[in-house]
Structure formats: C-alpha cells, structure tokens
Design a protein that fits this description.
This protein has 186 residues and is an alpha+beta fold. The protein contains 3 helices and 7 strands.
C-alpha cells in the first residue's frame, strides 16, 4: 500500500488533521485475555534520566490479530518532579521486576544474578529465550483518582498453542529448491 493510499484510508476513517491527536492511532485493547508472542524487549534511558524496560507483544488471533501492544515498565525507584518534590516509585519497580521474572519463568528460563545488574542486563536476559515465546496477555482496566482510565497488563501461560505455529515439516535437503550460486548477485 502506498503512503497516499494509507493517507486516504486514515482520512476515510474520520481523522481530522486540524483537530485530532496524531498519537491516538488506535484504541487500547479492551479488557480480556489475548494470545500473544513477545516480539521484542528494549531498555531505554531518556535524556531526562528516566529508565524503562519495554515489552512488545503481537496479538496472534481474534479480532485484534497482528495488533502490536507495547508494555513499558519503569526502573526508577524515585523521581524528582519539576516542583522539586520527590516521588517514591518503589512500587513501580516491584511491578517491573515481577513482570520480568514472570516472563522468564513462564518459558522456564533460569534467571541469573547478573540479569538484575541494570536495564540492559534485563533486556539481554529476555532476548535469550523469552522473546519469540507465546504468552496470554491479560488486560484489565481501572479508574485512577483523577477519574481517568488506565490499563494493567499481566502475562500467563498461553491458553493453547493453536495460533500461528511455524511449519517445520520440510526437513530433508532433497525437499529444498535447487540453488544456482551464479544466480546470487553477491
């Protein structure tokens, strides 16, 4: 699809370039359980010093198949706000570590002490085995004190392995197509 075709599709869906936010491209997943694959993990430190670990899940089936869900968890125990007051975020680090440990445990990946050295170590640990693994992503909603909605994410063992399994049935070399090395441009 060309950029022009995509732009026409966005406009036909009701996007008003003068009024609508560009950041709200799709609605959040509704509450429920979704069969997902962990497609990536990333550690990020913003110029402000804020650190987080991100988990990128792809929904495998149902109405939201192929939707990418980004779950980010902070790694800061405290944060100094613009007014100079310090926020205690230890509870958030607890959630981050629980999510990380659960992602590893559900795929029977041992966790080493070195995996807790910093956010980069956590990212590398997830890349060992968790990335590429299937989970059930549990989405729940709650209302914050200011009456806005927020989303909680949890993971569990996948409900089944019926979604998008790779086909490894072709194992014999005689099943592979002929290859002519002269046809390789490199």
């Amino acid at each position: 699809m060309s950029f022009l075709d995509k732009a026409k599709e966005i406009k036909a869906a009701g996007f008003d370039a003068k009024e609508d936010s560009v950041n709200k491209t799709q609605e959040d997943l509704p509450e429920g359980n979704y069969q997902v694959i962990l497609e990536g993990s990333t550690y990020n430190m913003a110029p402000s010093g804020w650190e987080q670990i991100g988990f990128s899940f792809r929904v495998l089936d149902g109405e939201f198949a192929d939707r990418i869900v980004s779950v980010r968890h902070g790694l800061q125990e405290t944060w100094v706000k613009k007014d100079g007051t310090t926020m205690n975020l230890g509870w958030q680090v607890d959630i981050t570590l629980k999510f990380f440990m659960k992602a590893m445990a559900l795929v029977d990946e041992p966790i080493n002490e070195e995996d807790f050295a910093d956010g980069i170590a956590m990212e590398q640990a997830l890349l060992r085995k968790s990335v590429g693994s299937m989970y059930t992503l549990v989405v729940s909603k709650y209302t914050k004190k200011d009456k806005t909605q927020n989303t909680n994410y949890d993971i569990e063992l996948p409900e089944s392995n019926t979604a998008a399994e790779p086909d490894f049935t072709r194992t014999k070399t005689e099943d592979l197509p002929d290859f002519d090395p002269k046809s390789n441009p490199f």
